[in-house]
């Protein structure tokens, strides 16, 4: 018995050590695959967006994960932009304008997170930012989300909009980052150039290694900044090397070299650096200057899996994300599973804890229908609708901080007595590492080191209450996922971005209208109609009175600590149309109209009777005059018809000559930048006049008219088969082959390749 007790104490101590060190090798991972909504299982890159959503790029798509659902962004027909200066492999950036830049060898794609679509015209986007350029050779985004553009040897940044000319002797620029007010440029030669961002003046240069060594590491590079002013860099080529540049003392340090390719670099803290490789996950300890390799990941459910990975990223909640080659995502958090379950032990418990008198003198009794609490002589019952994990209570124990821990047939609950008599209840289940199935009656005890053990039918759960409390310290910043409005009803969906403990997400919403406000706290389990199992909030605001509203939503793991950033939504409920100010004005106007109309109608009828007789007398005379007038009109119409036919023949001849001249002018300038303004000038017409004339003759605008002529010549060249599509685009005045292809399909209903066949 003593031996078993010592083993349990050792395991509890091991849990505490794990929580302190929280190394990746000691974490339990959960898998997220295509079955969970990921586009595909080949993960290329992981990063956290400024709003704390996770952006995961896979072989097929961009995936954006909010902790509840994945949204996929399809490329459709977008062609990558040719990035001639980038010779590295896959790299993803997000800039301050929420633009995602995806680089691969000599190719670039850009995705707009605000518009949720790919940017079709990257040169136009570049020219908006850098008016002197429409083409760039490389793109960088620093740790502070600012954009740097490279064109040849000219470097532009969005801090100042200034251009810096780089010395060719530095080599190929491969990485850019910032620290404070200084920018750091990392070159293929191993040189780092420090420059003042505001003045663009170079402060100093340092080189990491010799020219001979530079040839071995010139292929790909990645730089990550740590919070203590250091840059960690991996470089690949015929060999690989892991470097550190200290901005404080301006020195390079070679940490270690390898004969395998290093993939993604991630800084967990100032003491631990991680990078991925096909051989496994590596951790470098800065303080001890040692490295270790993790060859297997421990999975929460299932056998361990190989630690070879493509990418790794640490989020701002303390979680770690690993992207595998073919097995999807892995996610872990050091506080995620505070409960540890061991196979059933035969340890004896000092007493059967069915009835406990706590340090305050309160009496707690376990029953099969709730937890009985006698407080200051008053007895009350606590049920699952109050937050208890289940109504069938098995055992009770008090921890060192006077919290009560209760085991049931479906999980464990923690009860805190707040302000004398108010109870705060949090429950934990199998998703937290709690034993599945029922616990044994009366089998719970507090160990000397502060941990608690509870025996169940399928094993024993051991946990440190302070570790369980620590999980509540994660700061949650909810986002609005969707809003729908129907008459005076509003439905809103929120995600707390709670990756580690979605099942424990609490929400607080404040609805403000005018001077009135309503604050409501929603708890998981208790308010399951609002909070689903994934921690998403589905809020229905029904039958709202007309007016302007402001809704503030907060999320937390502790209902008494709302430290995260609130999400605010403003909306207005309009009154029904029949109760609006305009409707009441219309009612008044209608009443006036009815009264005035009644009076007018009576007067009109009187005048009508008086005029009827006079009209009858004049009718016969008017009929005779009308017959004579019709005869004269018929004669005049015949004469006018003959004149109109003559005029139309003359106009058709003029239109034909005009059209022939316009076509000739366009054909003469096929391969030139010949615009509508040029055509109108050559025809000695204003642009509006040209538009009206062509619209009247061919029912086309000038631009479509010119495009049809160019497409006609393009079709002829395609039929001849002597030129490529790019050459045909140049010969017929189109800016690119893709634009020619799109216009050709709109004009002829098929692609140029199909037309050629």
- Structural category: alpha+beta
Proportion of strand residues: 35-45%
Cα(first) to Cα(last) distance is 85 Å
Spatial strand sequence of the major β-sheet: 28-27-1-31-30-29
Global mean pLDDT: 87
Number of strands: 50
**Helix segment count?**
11
Percentage of residues in helical conformation:
10-25%
How are the SSEs placed, and which strands pair?
Elements: H1 2-21, E1 28-32, E2 43-48, E3 54-58, E4 62-65, E5 70-73, E6 81-82, E7 91-94, E8 99-104, E9 107-112, E10 117-118, H2 122-129, E11 138-141, E12 147-151, E13 154-157, E14 163-165, E15 173-179, E16 182-187, E17 191-196, E18 202-207, H3 211-214, E19 220-225, E20 230-236, E21 240-246, E22 251-258, E23 262-269, E24 272-277, E25 280-285, E26 290-294, E27 296-299, E28 305-306, E29 311-314, E30 320-323, E31 329-332, E32 339-342, E33 355-357, E34 363-367, E35 370-375, E36 378-382, E37 393-398, E38 404-408, E39 411-418, E40 422-428, E41 439-446, E42 452-456, E43 459-463, H4 465-470, E44 479-486, E45 489-495, E46 506-513, E47 516-522, E48 536-541, E49 547-556, E50 567-573, H5 581-668, H6 676-682, H7 687-698, H8 702-720, H9 725-731, H10 737-748, H11 752-756
Parallel strand pairs: 1-27
Antiparallel strand pairs: 1-31, 2-3, 3-4, 4-5, 6-9, 7-8, 8-9, 9-10, 11-12, 12-13, 13-14, 15-16, 16-17, 17-18, 19-20, 20-21, 21-22, 23-24, 24-25, 25-26, 27-28, 29-30, 30-31, 32-43, 33-34, 34-35, 35-36, 37-38, 38-39, 39-40, 41-42, 42-43, 44-45, 45-48, 46-47, 46-49, 49-50
Helix pairs in contact: 8-10, 9-10
